[in-house]
Amino acid sequence: MIQNLLHDLKLEPSRDEMARQEFVSCLRGYILVDMAATMNNQFVNNVAPRFEQEHHRVPENGPEVHRAMKDDLSFKFYSSIRCNAQEMVWRSVIPVVERNLEELVTGARSLSADTHNTRGSLNLDNRLELPSNVTAVDVHLAPGGYHREYTEDDVAAGAIYDNGLNIFAANMMGANLDDIGASMANYIRLMYPDFKPKKILDCGCTIGHNAVAWAKTYPEASTHAIDVCAPVLRYGNARAQSQGVEVHFSQMNATALDFDDDSFDVVFTSMFLHELPPNDIRFFMAEAYRVLKPGGLLLNMELPPNDQMTAYDSFYLDWDCYYNQEPYSKCFRDQHYQTLCTTAGFAESDCVQFVMPQYGYMPSDDFEAAIGCENVIDDKVGRLTTGIQWFAFGAWKGA
User: Fold this and answer.
1) To the nearest whole number, what is the mean pLDDT of the chain?
2) Which residues of the chain fall short of a pLDDT of 50?
3) What is the pLDDT of residue 234?
């Protein structure tokens, strides 16, 4: 079921629009659970044995599984339905946003101007050149991407992202779609109780949902959030203001941060690095190292790397690269994450990797009991399915 978003920019779909959104959400759940299981069974029982008979060995990596599966009807059906369902997410949301756009723009202006409950801020840079990986690709098959503006002070892209993610998540990403940020921040809070960050930076924040979670977890810290796209930042700032949470939003490219050296205690990203070309990943990692204070933490939530996955799981998680307009995701996951950190200047001994349960979906005692447990990467990690766990990697900057 689709949940009601808990902020003042939430939309009120008509009964027909809500029925369509509920159908799409349920369809996606069926695809990612039932159809995915059927495809896996077809691989185990038919495709893999054929491959072994022909090559006298098992598939060694995701691309070999992909090639072996391409002609299989279960894979064709799965991919066709999943692509259509992804497009249906946006088609079910965009008309609602278009109908309410004037009200959304007015509401966002009002919320952004209201500093009674919070002192958050918004700093836009209309001179910023948007990178081609943002402008040339309709990421996630979202029409127009997340950067296009259609009216003055536009927030349409932010509203489409927020409401689309709500359908996409199927009530598995927190009451305000903030479970990734809440899980990561609280994992660090409990695992490192003496770590008291005073300044936090969320890079590639889109609508700032995870930045809000970090700000709530560390209320004494100053939380900043950046993205290159103005409409999602306008929406994100108003969204945070409506929740009474102080976050400072800025339009900025994470590959060239306009912050001083040694200025942040935490640099955080969520599902951001896999959207960047390889060179931009290296630029960002170097920038993260530069702006971190000695003793600070870089933490990136992503899908696990291919070198830690089975061949089939690599194939399954690389699907988005080929069919969901995320052209850099496989290239990113093919890299060695620790090497990305050490190349940026972090010491190998300071690199970290975590697998954690969802903070918002279990008793606090159970979440705390999972702190520091063995990082087991299985078919629950990063997938929107029952028992999902989040994966993160990064490094501490040496003192």
Assistant:
1) 96
2) none
3) 98
What integer pLDDT is reported at residue 279 of this predicted model? 98
CA–CA distance from 184 to each of 269, 299, 360 (Å)? Answer: 10, 8, 11
Q: What is the pLDDT of residue 373?
A: 87
Residue 56 structure tokens: 């006298």
Provide the pairing of β-strand 389-396 with 264-270. Answer: unpaired
How many angstroms separate the CA atoms of 29 and 169, rounded? 9
**354 three-state secondary structure:** strand
pTM: 0.97
Tell which residue, 196, 195, 183, has the closest CA to residue 389: 183
304, 274 contact by CB (below 8 A): no
Q: Which two tokens stand for residue 292?
A: 């971190």
Partnered with residue 352 across adjacent β-strands are 394
Which regions of the chain does DSSP assign to beta strands (E)? 121-123, 199-203, 222-227, 248-251, 264-270, 292-301, 351-357, 389-396
Q: Could you identify the residue written with the tokens 């369809």?
A: 27
Exposed/middle/buried for residue 73 (C-beta within 10 Å: 0-12, 13-18, 19+): exposed
Please answer whether residues 272 and 300 qualify as being in contact, where contact means their C-beta atoms are separated by less than 8 angstroms: yes
Enter the tokens of residue 375.
Answer: 């990082």
For the record, the structure tokens of 308 come out as 């830690």
Read off the tokens for 239. 């969204």
What the block records as the tokens of 32 is: 């990612």
Residues 6+ apart with CB under 8 A from 398: 294, 295, 346, 347, 350
In sequence order, the β-bridge partners of residue 123 are 250
Please write down the HEC assignment for all residues of 319-350.
HHHHHCCCCCHHHHHCCCHHHHHHHHCCCHHH
Instruction: Give the DSSP letter of residue 377.
Output: -
- pLDDT of the residue at 61: 98
Residues 6+ apart with CB under 8 A from 190: 367, 368, 371
Looking at the DSSP assignment, which residues form a beta bridge with residue 212? none
What is the arrangement of strands in the sheet containing 264-270, beginning at the earlier edge strand? 121-123, 248-251, 222-227, 199-203, 264-270, 292-301, 389-396, 351-357
Note the pLDDT of residue 384.
Answer: 82
Tokens of 144: 């127009």
